[in-house]
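P.,

For your records, the input lines for the assembly:
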Amino acid sequence: MSTTWLPCGVYHQNYSQDQAWFQTNFIRGKMILLFAILFIGIPLVADDYVLSVCNQIGYTVLGALGVQLLIGFCGQVTLGHAAFLAVGAYTSTLLILEFPWPQVLLDAGLAYPISIFVAALVAGIWCVLFGLPSARVKGFYLILTTMAAQFITVDFIITQYVSQIGGRGQAFSLPPGTIKIGPWVIDSDLKVYYLMLVLAILCVSLVVNLLRSRVGRAWVAIRDNDISAEVMGINVIQYKLFAFFVAGFIGGIAGAFWISNLAAISPEHFPWFWSLWLVGVILIGGVGSIHGVIFGSIFMVVVMEALQLIIFWFMELGFAWAQPLFMDFLFVKEAAFGLAICAFMIFEPNGLSYRWWQIKNYFNLWPFSY
Amino acid sequence: MDLFLMTVTTGVMVGGIYALVALGWVLIYKCSGVLNLAMGEMTLIGAYVSLSFYSMGFPFIVALAISLVIGFILGVLTERIFLDRLIGEPVLTVIMVTVGLSFFFKGVVELIWGTDTRVFEPAVFALEPIRIGPLIIGQVYLWSFIAALVLLVVFVSFFKYTRWGLAMQATADDEMAALSVGVSARFVYAAAWAIAFMAAGVGGTLLGNINGLNISVSYLGLLVLPAVVLGGLNSVPGAIVGGIAIGILQNLCGTYLDRYFPGGVKEIAPFVFMAVFLLFKPYGLWGWERIERV
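C-alpha cells returned:
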C-alpha cells in the first residue's frame, strides 16, 4: 500500500501515531463530515432509486472486501467468492425460516442478527475448507480450486440439495416481517441502507484493524514472498487459512445482508459471473488497497447504472438501435464489464485508488511538491 | 456391460472434441504463458459463425471453413489488441484480461445471436445411428470424433513438420534461445491465438451439432481446464489424453452416479475430480514440474 505524505510540518514521533486511525485533526474532521453525509445527508436528499443504487454499492463493497483481503493482501487469488456469499445468504435464510427460534428472541428481533453472525461463521469455515489446497498449491492451480468451489457449492450443493429443504422448490422467499432487527422491520430501501452502512463500516474497520496488526503484516509478508515470510517465523499455512476464514466471514455477512434486499433468494443470485465481477471491482479500484474496494464498487455500479440510463435516453429519443440494447441490458453490461477490465488492466493497472493517492499527495505537498 | 461400453465409447467421442479445444488452450499457454479463461467464448463465436453461414445455405464444409478463417482473423486481432501489451505483466493481470475478454465476447454474442437454442437445420449428419458389433453410436458423435481426430492430426503435424510449427515449439521451449536464432516471438504468439481460436471454433461447431447451440456451449471452455490439469498444463499429448479422459469420466458419472446424486453430476464431476487431482499431482501427468515449495 502506498503511503500518503503528511502535510508540511507534521511529523510522527512514535509508531502508534504512524498506525493511528486519524493522523491529523483535519483527517478527523474530514471523516466526521463523511459520516454525516452518509448517515444524514444522503437519506435526506435521495429518493428510492438512488438509495437502491447505494445499497448495491454497499453490497459490492462487502463482497469485494473479502476478495481484496485474499487477493490484495494475502496474494491468494480467488475466483469463486460468490460461493461464500451464497453460503452466507442460504445459512441466514434457512435459519430464519426453519430454526425453531424461542419466542423471546423473536420478540426481541434478534433472530436476524444472530443468523447473520452464524451465517458468517459457516461461510468462513466453508471458505477455509476450499482454502485448504492453498497449503499445497499456489497461483493458477489455486485459481482452479476456487473455481471448483464455485461450481461445487452453488451449482451442485445449493441448487440440487439445499434448495430442496422445506420443499419450496427453487427460490426461498422470506415472508415480510421476518427480517427484523430489534424493533425495526427491514422493509424499505432506507432501512436496508442504514443496515448496509453499519455493516460496511464494521467490516471495513475489522479488516483495517486486522491489517495494521501482526496478522495483517504476516499476510502482506506472505503475499510479497512466502519463502522469506516462513524464514521470518510466520506460520504460512495457518495465516493463509486465517485469511480465507476472514474473507469467507465477510462474504457470509455480505450474503446474509443481501437477503434483506431480496424478496426471494435463488442460486441465480450467485453466479460465477458475480465472483468474477467482485475480482473485477478490486482490479479496477486497485489491488492491495481498502480505498480500492470502495472506489471500485462505486465506479462499477454507477457506470453500469449510467450506461443503462444513457441507453434508455437514446431509446426515448427514438433511436431504433437502442431498443434491443435496453431489452437485453444484461448482455450490454457483460460486454461493458469485460471491456472495462481489459482497459483498466492495460492502461491503468494500479487502479483508481492510485489516482486518488496521487491527488491527495499533490494537495498535501502543495505548493512545495519537491 | 453393453451399457458400460456404450458409455465409454460416447465418452471417447465427446472427449475428442474436448481434446481439440484443450489443444488450443495448451498451445496458448505453452507459447506465451497466458492462462486463457476466454476459451469457452471463443468456441461460441466459431460455432455461431459457422451456424449462421450454414443457415444461409452454404454447405457445411464451407461454413466451417469460413468460421476457421474468421477465427484466424479474430485470434490475431485479439492477440495484437489485448494480449500483446501485457507481455511480462503479473499472472493475475493477464488472467483477468482473458476473463474480461470472455465477458466481452459473451455479451457481443448474446447481443447478436440471442440466447435461444439454435440447431443446425437441416441436420448436418444423418440421424439414424450406426451399429458396430454390440455398440450403437449416433452418426453425429462418430463424425464429430473423426473430424476432431483429423484436425488433431493436422495440428500436431503442423507443429512437428512445418517451419512455423517448429518456430512455435522452439519459442515454447526456450524463448530467449528462439529469439536469438531469429524466431519472431510476436509472430508465434499471434499464431498460437489464431490456431486456438480456430480449434475452439471447430470444437464449438461439432458440439453444437450434437446438442444444439446456445450460450451454455461456452461451458466447454471451462471443461477444458480439468482436461489440461490432468494432462499437464504444457503438454500437447497430455491435452489430448486429458480431453478424452474427461469425456469418459463425464459420461461414466452421468450414467452411474446420476441415480445417487440426482441433477448435475455430469457437469460437476470434472471439477470435483480436478480439485482432488490438484491436491495430489498439481503438475498433471506430463506437465513440466517446477519444484516450488509452498
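Two observations worth noting. Chain A touches chain B through 51 residues (CB under 8 Å). Chain A has one domain: 45-365.

Regards
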